[in-house]
Design goal:
The longest helix has 17 residues, at 187-203. The chain is of the alpha/beta class and 225 residues long. It has helices spanning 11-23, 34-43, 60-69, 85-93, 106-118, 152-162, 171-178, 187-203; strands spanning 3-7, 27-31, 48-52, 54-55, 58-59, 76-80, 98-101, 126-129, 132-135, 140-143, 146-148, 169-170, 209-214, 218-223. Helix 6 crosses helix 8 (187-203). It folds into 2 domains: 3-118, 3-Layer(aba) Sandwich (Rossmann fold); 126-223, Arc Repressor Mutant, subunit A. The strands form 4 sheets. The chain has a 5-stranded parallel sheet with strand order 2-1-3-6-7, sandwiched between helices. The protein has a 4-stranded antiparallel sheet with strand order 8-9-10-11, with no helix packed on it. A 3-stranded antiparallel sheet has the order 12-14-13. The protein is built from 8 helices and 14 strands. The structure holds calcium ion.
Length: 225
């Protein structure tokens, strides 16, 4: 059964939507503000979110952005009372998949939901090491909400190290995996990529991952206790 997260602060509208969607065979959890939406979304993987923008503790756009920043492809349909184009555009650029303008009919919402659920969603490969979240395709790295900006080589090195957490990876292995014909890679170069990566991880508040060096051998990824 499809689990839907409904985020709506209007009690009448929320009650009506929840009831109607349940009659259509969906299972609905209803969050009435932004904080509840975040907390509920942590509880389980939803197949779709219906998201009101004007919430008592902030804008639904914050939910949208945060979910996308964490790499989730959760389909999100915005319920917008602000029928102006700006809020719709802003919603779509914040990562929403579709929108429905209030007032809407239940039939319209259900049709949009079914369409969004049919759309193919390809989940991006994510790797978690400690509290580090690595989005492999986007080549982005997060600790909580904070993104750690890595350049191409730093990301490549991180990717090699996190493939074997805790295990020492030799410089030679790193060189082989980084190697391409266009660029010669030397021990010194690897050391410099690693030291930049190490400094950035260390600088990120609350990051519990460190790059340890094993003298004369190579490097390994370790989690702080
Ligand atoms: Ca509202």
């Amino acid at each position: 059964m499809n689990q839907i997260l409904l985020v709506e602060d209007d009690p009448m509208l929320g009650t009506n939507l929840k009831l109607n969607l349940e009659l259509e065979g969906f299972k609905v959890d209803w969050a009435q503000n932004l904080a509840e939406a975040f907390a509920t979304n942590e509880q389980q993987p939803y197949q779709l979110a219906l998201l009101d923008l004007g919430l008592p503790d902030g804008s639904g756009l914050n939910f949208c952005r945060s979910v996308r920043e964490k790499g989730s492809r959760l389909p999100i349909i915005i319920l917008t009372a602000q029928s102006d184009e700006d809020s719709v555009v802003e919603g779509l650029s914040a990562g929403a998949d579709d929108y429905v303008k209030k007032p809407f009919s239940n039939r319209e919402v259900v049709a949009r939901i079914r369409a969004a659920l049919r759309a193919p969603t390809v989940r991006e490969e994510q790797i978690r090491v400690g509290n580090l979240l690595v989005l492999m395709e986007q080549r982005r790295v997060y600790v909580g909400q904070e993104e750690i900006p890595l350049n191409r080589r730093e990301f490549d090195v991180l990717k090699i190290l996190i493939a074997r957490p805790g295990v020492v990876v030799t410089r030679e292995m790193i060189i082989t995996q980084l190697g391409d014909s266009a660029e010669h890679i030397f021990d010194r170069t690897v050391d410099s990529h690693v030291s930049h990566l190490r400094a950035k991880l260390k600088k990120a508040k609350e990051c519990n991952i460190r790059v340890k060096s094993e003298y004369g051998v190579g490097y390994r990824i370790a989690t702080l206790d």
